[in-house]
């Protein structure tokens, strides 16, 4: 069980992939798919997809109770609430009542419970490990992020039409891009072309 590393590989349905670290696991979770025009990015198609995502570090929640269709539906609901709340905070807008209610409802459920291994040098999640507990843990993390010292550092990528959100935990608070090798480099390339066009 690790809680000190975040980030996932994101895949573009048009081709290509890149490493994106949203800076918080709950925000990584928000980027597993979406509604409307973001449905093309969906990665949680089946209950097993949710189980696989939760089992990856840093959460490393290897579920001991099978994920159900209802769990998957709940996960998508929580994901949307995190997505909406993050974008509202990034835009400097008040959080909508719907997102707040959903986050509070999921957080009210029992979370994952850490358990010390017999040797006292490692920990795991106490069994049984259910999807609902993992969702509660993610909701609690999002609430902590929104109300904590980095609550004002939730940002949307400055790239053109890039909807990805992240928490800027850099010391100067100067992070602008979802990933330098993606939107950062695209911006540099456009700026270079613009300068060359001006010079000609």
From TrEMBL:
It comes from the Bacteria. Signal peptide: none annotated. Gene3D superfamilies: Jann2411-like domain. It holds the Pfam family ABATE. Residues 153-196 form the Zinc finger CGNR domain. PANTHER family: BLL6575 PROTEIN (PTHR35525). This is Putative RNA-binding Zn ribbon-like protein. It comes from Actinoplanes octamycinicus.
């Amino acid at each position: 069980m690790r809680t000190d590393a975040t980030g996932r590989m994101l895949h573009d349905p048009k081709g290509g992939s890149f490493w994106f670290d949203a800076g918080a696991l709950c925000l990584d979770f928000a980027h597993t798919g979406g509604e409307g025009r973001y449905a093309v990015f969906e990665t949680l198609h089946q209950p097993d997809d949710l189980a696989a995502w939760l089992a990856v570090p840093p959460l490393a929640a290897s579920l001991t109770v099978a994920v159900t269709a209802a769990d998957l539906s709940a996960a998508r609901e929580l994901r949307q609430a995190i997505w909406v709340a993050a974008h509202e905070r990034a835009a400097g807008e008040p959080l909508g009542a719907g997102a707040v209610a959903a986050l509070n409802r999921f957080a009210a459920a029992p979370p994952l419970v850490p358990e010390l291994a017999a040797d006292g040098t490692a920990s795991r999640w106490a069994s049984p490990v259910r999807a609902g507990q993992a969702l509660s843990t993610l909701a609690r993390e999002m609430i902590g992020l929104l109300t904590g010292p980095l609550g004002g550092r939730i940002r949307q990528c400055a790239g053109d039409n890039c909807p990805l959100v992240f928490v800027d935990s850099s010391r100067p608070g100067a992070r602008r891009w979802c990933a330098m090798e993606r939107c950062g480099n695209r911006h540099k390339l456009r700026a270079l072309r613009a300068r060359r066009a001006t010079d000609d």
